[in-house]
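Reproducibility note. Readers wishing to regenerate the assembly model reported in the main text can use the exact inputs given here. Chain order matters: entities are listed in the order in which they were concatenated for prediction.
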Amino acid sequence: MADGRSQVRRRAGVRLWLSAIWLLLLILLAIFAPHIAPKDPLEQDLFSGRLPPFWVHGADKSFLLGTDSLGRDVLSRIIFGTRIALAVAFISGTLTCIIGAGLGLLAGFYRGWVDVLVSRFIDIWMAFPPVLFSILLIAVIGPGLFSIILAIVVIDWTRFARVIRAEAMSQGAMDYVASARVAGRGKFGTMLREILPNVLPIIVVLLTLEMGIAVIVEAILSFVNLSISTDDPTWGGMISEGRTSIHQAWWVLVFPLITLFLTVLSFSQLGEGLKDRFDPVLR
Amino acid sequence: MNLSRRSLLKLSVAAVATSVALPSFAQAIDELVIAYNVTLPSWDPTTGPSAVNPTIQGLYQSVFDQFILQQPDLKPAPGLLTEWGWNDDKTQVHMTVRDGVTWHDGSPFTAEDVAWSLERAADPATGNPINFVWSSLANFKVDGNKVTADVKQFDPTIFKWMYFLTGYVLPKAYYTKVGAEGFEKAPIGTGPYMVDKFEQNAFVRLKANPTYWGGKPDFDTVTIKFVTDAAARVAEIEGGSSHVTLEMPYEEYDRLKGSMNGYATPVSNIGMIFLNDIEVMLDPNVRKAAVAAIDKQAIVDRLLSGYGVPIDTLETPDYDAYDASIKTPYDPDAAVKLLAASGYSVDKPVKFTIQTTKGYMPKDYEMIQAIVGLWRKVGIEATIEVYEIAKHYELRAADKLAPAAFYNWGNSVGDPTTSTGFAMFGPSPHSVWDSKDLIDMIGPLWGEKDEAKRIAGWKAVDAYIAENAYVIPLLQYVQPILAAKGVVVTPHHSGALLPHLMKRA
Amino acid sequence: MNYLSIRNLSARVKGGGPLLRDVSLEVAAGEVRGLVGESGAGKSMIGKAILGILPKAVDITEGQILLDGTDLLSLPPAERRIRVGASCALIPQDPLTALNPSRRIGPQITDRLVHILGWTRSDAEARARALLGEVQINDPARVLRQYPHELSGGMRQRILIASAFAAEPKLIVADEPTTALDVTVQKQILKLIAGLQARHGTALVFVTHDLGVVSKVCQSLSVLYSGRVVEDTTVTDFFRAPKHPYSAALLAATPKYTDPSAGLKPVPDAVIAAVKAEVERG
Amino acid sequence: MALLQTLLLRLVTTAVTLFGVAVIVFFVIRVVPGNPIAMMLPPGATQADIDQLTALYGLDKSIPQQFLIWGLGVLHGDFGTSITLRQPVLALVLGRLPATLELSVMALVMAVLVGGAAALTGTRLRATKVEGGIDIANGMALSVPDFLWGLVLILVFGVLVPVFQISGRVTPSLQLPFVTNFYLVESIVRLRFDLTKDLLSHMFLPAVALAIPLAAIIGQLLKQSLKETMHLDYVTLARTQGYSEARVIWREALPNAILPTLTLVGVQFTFLIGGTVIIERLFSYEGLGNMAIDAVINRDLPLIQGIVILFAVIFTGVNLVVDLTYAALNPRLRHG
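Running the prediction on these inputs yields the following structure tokens for the assembly.
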């Protein structure tokens, strides 16, 4: 008996595939950076500074995307920059997720004083102006990869906590949870086996969005000159360095910006796509 | 100090605009607008952190007069004091006060104001950061237009401080009447401009002081906008909403100087790398190799578009104790040999950390990256650690800086004590290198009464420092200034941008 | 000329299987026609097609829907909207979600009369009060000022019925109006709809899977299976002697009030196979 | 009665939150290396000078002691004096707040209009190329940090096509007859539209830079909420009554879709105020954010403390307002 509704297939998310491909490409670049990158990202040659990309007159073909003011190869720095960008995205994304979702789940499911405590904690935490707080934080622990990740986690865990708490509360009120409790399963067991699976899709969606945000925060911190201190190239660092000579060497800023832009866009489109995929009722 | 032909070209000629003038400036400018690079936190030039911030002194010098006037080439000239000096055995100082000068509120300026300003600076309670200098004078006496005081402790640079940090004369009657907060709200001085309107962190509007003793300035009203972001400053002048701006990236200066009046003047501010007498820096070979491996001219030419004067001691050509004969040439091979003597090589490099600010001074971070790159070629592996300027002061005061630390040292007085002295003298909280030999060499110079002997003494210290590579002087900064066609600027070597030195073209 | 006549209407899901297969249906003015079939047979799809509220993913491939002689499918969307809005109405299935939670009851009945039919606000309000009276709501003035969440399911369905009849439509589509209600309230609502229909002489297309309801309310019915009309007859003939085997099986599968002990006989597989074959042949 | 009770409870929780913020900030910024005294040490100062200046600013006492002094001061309105600006912190912070508030509100209004329009068009033309385009635009707006939008705006509108002002809040040469610091509001109230025009020309670019990411967020959330509402029965019923698709969206779906979006806009608004730090720096707009960065760089402890507390008050205040409007708008809560 052909029921029409089940055949309404979701239009294959072209955007979803494109973003997945881009992110996969980035992961490959990050892993095989030393073999792929044409040059050593740190190698300087003051006398071949600000060479334009290969298609522009006066370019040096060996530097495909040109060089920055210190004569370093822009393409290699972008490729190695992928490592830090993905590291920041995955580590801080996951940490934010674990802390935020964990607290949110506990507060949303157990309610009572746990909920009050966590909610007060969230309120206090969200009362801090994010950028200002990260500047202060980095001033305390000094710039570096670790401090950026810490700054992102410290600022953004509340985003997870709030959403997951609300979701856990609404799931908690549903009948299937009551029936699980009736079947004699402990409260914590119920939370893990019943609530978590249903809350998982939202966690995954938030996780991908969070990774995008992490990459942007790193760029903002570089703008305020607080990003990674070592020589290692980061997109945010290249963008802020390229800013001063935007008229003379636009490529130093433009190429990392495009890479950053595509990466964050891919994370957000992936998040949106997953959200639709996981949505129980086919829209 | 070798000046390559190219950087000489950039320095000597003020690139007067030849191509088409910007349309919006065809007509004369009645109100001058300056895009300034720092904000003015407080109007009291004698207390608080802003009193020792060199970049703000230009704003103070537009409204207040210093005891002694400093000319654009850093040399002193009669100011509010027409004549000053010590008595024969240097136990007393005497000063003659200029007459016929009035405060902005019309009240007369007298010797009483000078004595009171000096007493106030000497009093620790007011929080004057240079208290240790001013407290070397005591029991001030006023007699007509003469002021005398006893020298409790001889300081050869006392008169130089009168045209340096906190050396300003404030109105005694007005200040005592309105108090600190009142003064902050409505400051008055004897300077070329009066404060018309001040909006914190935004702008200050100045009106010309008609009765200024140094002659009424050319522009009647001047608005100084505080635009801390360099790209925004460039857009301001390019878009035409400001007539004069300073401290923009050198690349932008090169791009715009063609269509405007451009001035690139070496100022009394140097970039240097402190060396701390810890870890590997105790080995002279490492220090000397580190100095020899740096191609200062290449850094200036490639990174700073040629705007900068490489230096080999902490003195610049404008300073009193400058000695052109002291040389630490760029010699990478010598560096490799020196390192080999201590068992280091490109494969087995010496390792240490170098600290630097990022974005505090033009290309500070890129310069250190370039130096680390040059070092890597000879067998020195330095890892860069970025810190904020506040953290630098903290670490330096506690003598916990890394083996190498980049810093910029301003000294508009040009006296060796306030450059090599405070930077290299062990007991001073500001020095980083604390070896005994240097302390003994510098010690006697503090109180040296014979000026010629004193200067010669400091030159010997500089030579000794260069020979032992106790510090790595890098370059004297050049300050880029851009001005619209209708404005001719006289740059001041102290780096202060002074509206009253600006004339209509 | 019948008020509503659907001719050879077929529809399918975009890039999917057929939903309606060559459906033809005639409803005279004032007639109460039942549309019966298992869930998913396409009966409510026909209702939606008439009112022009098919989901975006469903396409009408061929056929006509003539309302008072004009084929709605050939009209431009704006004109079709106005014509349906002026002469038809819907009694929705679930009263709990069919009223706008953030607005009072009054405007939800009167707005349509004022905006679409051009009545004055006062006439519309008078009409609303009158209709609420007809559906046995005892304090109409107060109810008109209340919000949906303050009322029970039964009350809301009465309001929806009143709202439907308020515009004196020629045709009302009732899409399983009692399914979401509990049994006791169902009987009252059915009696209400029948009463109002008789008094207002409105043609009624009654979509239901409950033959009991059909016997009480409808005059004629069409039996649907997998998008095709397998039988089209009067209620009396259907209950006396259904022509199509599927109809007979369907009738047998319905509990008899007259003989409760008769037991239920599910539709035999053979019959299912036969009717499936017939339908597939098209 | 219920509303009053929740209000009281909210006030108590707000007090707890503010106290928590005060304690945390007080201790964090005192642990920060680079105490302000070191900043003020000129060449030649000796250890005695350091101790003397530290005592002058009361930084020699133990941190708990300092917190007590500061706490007592706050109770009767004295937030201490700023070390760098040498003026009472409360006056400084309240003096600067109006500029940031006006900019943030302007950005919020722009974001709501643009975001709202995008969501409505996206819903109206759903499952078409247009909606795909809007989604991409939203994604793009969110993928570029707002300071880069600021840069682009400066380059385009400041230099290439000098249409808008790119620095400061008002043209310095204008005489401002204002009493409060709410220049924009007061210029309208005083019917001085010439000043309003000048203010808007200064505020337009920073407001746009702030509004772009916010508009994208509002646009996405509202569209999501609208699409969910469009499937509800009362919307379908409205369609059968003859209303056009646009009117159905506007009259039936929007009022019910706004409520869930409202709470998120409330939260975004406070992020927006926090986010002005960078944009104000870029446009030299003299709001709270610009002062905040200088305070942190100069380790002006009392000023940092005052600014963060004020942000906390704004955050809890906006939250309170959002919850109250949610209750007021949502009939279910209003009628008990």
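We highlight two features of this model. Residues 162 and 276 of chain A are 21 Å apart (CA to CA). The two ends of chain A are 22 Å apart (CA to CA).
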